[in-house]
Structures are given as C-alpha cells and as structure tokens.
Amino acid sequence: MNLVYRLLLILSLCLCGCAADDDTDTPVRFGDGSVGLLGDGTTGVDSSAESGPASDGGLNDSGTTMADDTPVVERLVDNERIPIDQGVGRVTFDVPQDVISLTVIIHGESNGWYGIDSWIDGDGSALVTADWPSFPGNERGCFSCRNFANQNQGASTTIAPNRDTGTVHPGRHQVNIVGWVDGFAADSARVSVILKRGPRPPENGVLDVNFYFTGAQGWTAESVQTDNYFAATIERFNELYGRIGLTIGDMTYHDIDPALSVVSIAEDDDTLGALMANAVASQTDGLNVFFVDEILTGEPDFPSIPGVAASVPNPPYLPGTVASGVAIATRGPLSVPPGQRFLDPPAIGQTLCHELGHALGMFHTSEYDEVSHDVYDDTPENDNTYLMHADGTGARISPEQARAILVNPAVYHRDPSN
Ligand SMILES: [Zn+2]
Asked: What CATH number corresponds to the domain at position 367?
C-alpha cells in the first residue's frame, strides 16, 4: 500500500520575488454546527444543520454575521467514533440546500488504513460506488466514481466535489466507511464531516499554513521571519496560486526535534509519520509544512526526493496524525549524484507549491510512466507546464483543479466588505 507514497513524489525549480503577506483580517472559522445521535443511537450521526436558504449567512466564532455570499464551514459530524461491524461502518448526515462542498475525514490507528467504501448523495445517487476497489482501473483510487475517493494510512480525506462530476446535493447522505489494522477489520474509526456552505462556489480564498523547522536550511521559527529566501518561498506560492485567487493568510512557526531532519518514505520506515505527528502544535486551522534536510526513499536508483505529501488531500482541521502534512527537503537530492536524481534540485518555493497542491487534494496530472493521469478533463496529459505534473516544475492550474482547490475547507473566505 506504500504505493500511494510512491505516487506522491515531487520536484522542481523556481525563481522568486519577496515580501510575505502580512494581511491580518479576521479569518472565517467554523460555525456552530452541532451533532446529535440518531434515534437508534447506533451507527448513524444526525446533523442539526438547517436546510434553509442561503440568505441566513453563517456565523464565525465571534458570532458575527458574515456577508451573504461569503462561504462558511460547519461540522456536520464532529470526530464521532463509528463502530465497524462486518467490515463496514455507517455514517448518515443531513446536508442543507446551500452546500458547496462536503469533506469526510476517517481516521484511527497510525498503522491502520481507512477510507470510504460508498457514499450515497442527497439525491439518492452514488457519489462513490460501493466496493469500488474491486473494479479495474481503480488501483490508485476510484477513477470510475462520480467523485474521486481513495484510502490512506492513518487518516483518509475525501472532498466532494473534487471534480466537475462530483456535485453534491442537499438531503440525507450516507457514507459507508472501511478500516483495517494489521490486516484485520478495525473495530471502529473516527469520522468528521465538514460542510462548506454559501450561495455560490468561491472564486478566491485564503490558506493558513503552520511551518515546522528541524534546523534544515539553517531555518528556525525565529530566523525565517526575517529570512529573504523564506519570504521569496512564500511569495512564490502567492504568485502561482494568486492566479486562481488563493493566497497564504496566517502563518505560524514552530521548532521541532532536529533528529527529524532526515526522514524516509521507505516501506516499514515510519519516520515520515513521526515527523507529521508533530503537527499537534498547530495554532491555526491551516495546513502543515515540515522543512527537513532530506527525504530518503530506500530505492537505490533514486534515493532522495525533494518533497512528499503524507496524504492527498491532507485532513483539514486534523493535526497530529501521520497524514497531517507535507515534508520539503531543503537540500533536495543534493547528496545524490546527478544521474540518480529524480530531477535537479528544486527551489524550495516551487516544491512548496507542488506539495501544498497535494495537501489541497490534487494528484499528479500525469505520472512519469506517461500512462497514469488524474481525474480532470482539462489537464493535458504529459504536460509538465502544469504544477501538478509529477516533475513539479510547472505553474499552470486548470479551471477544474482551481474549483476543487477553492472548495477545500482548509481554504477560507473573507467577507469582501471588510
Ligand atoms: Zn507530487
């Protein structure tokens, strides 16, 4: 199953400007969606979300009413423990009329595998087809489903819509979950369902990021705040993603154990997961980025890579799992002879953009094998001018990719009147 990691390797190159974003507007946080058990009190979780019109707007933490067309997020299911009987657990929840996206997060043991077996939309149709892993062509995830789904170690995240066919409908949804630990069905898993709602899909957004430093690049939580290269790294993100209306908002900085400065994605090596688990120090609801010296692969031919995402997408609002972040190697594969590098050493900002693309839910538009591609109709095959091509040197983001990124609940939206 470590095949997934193999698919998430990266690369790059870059040029940069400078100046970090110091915008201090108040971000929109969770509303007050609460959770109650269904009458039978067993596997179902009922939502208190109203099926009302969009004109109600939403509430942020301070109780301020947001402008009508500012999307907000609410928890429909809040980290509920769902029993898994006969190999399957069931979650049901009610979705309001003004749904923009739904995100299902399933997590449990760090060495367990979790995912969605099926998802029935509010209109009764299948967003994710039951038993999808048994169908040909779904080896890397459910390509045949209306909405892409996959399974992941530690924590699995599925966002709908993540492609143009994945539109979600209001009404009662049912998600069947699966999980395995040590080859046996798990007894239970934790499930969260996050709703993004508003009158129309967002056309821009803000992403908070928590940065973690192992000493790589000589960077510390303090030094990066006046470091020109780090500022240029952030500027690269804002320039590249700015084309789809996405910019970095609040940033936090954390020093962590220097012993984690070299990690490995090799099979049976859990150092990447140990690194990701340090995301517990998060002070925002943003995504988590770890800077290390090197990321080893255990593969003699290509022993070191510039970056890796621990999951695609990363689980929003869930720090501290083995899936909760991305790692970026500031030395890239510099220690490796040029003939054994995936690509030449990338600039850090470009790697950051590519890895955060994974964290936001993007798979490679095309792999190096030139036969494996993503789910989007508008990403040309084997075109490395796209950011999410496996070689990671491009900058282009397609309209379908942009729509999927902006509905991710980690991307939040500000009242334009502020
Ligand atoms: Zn990649």
From this structure: 3.40.390.10
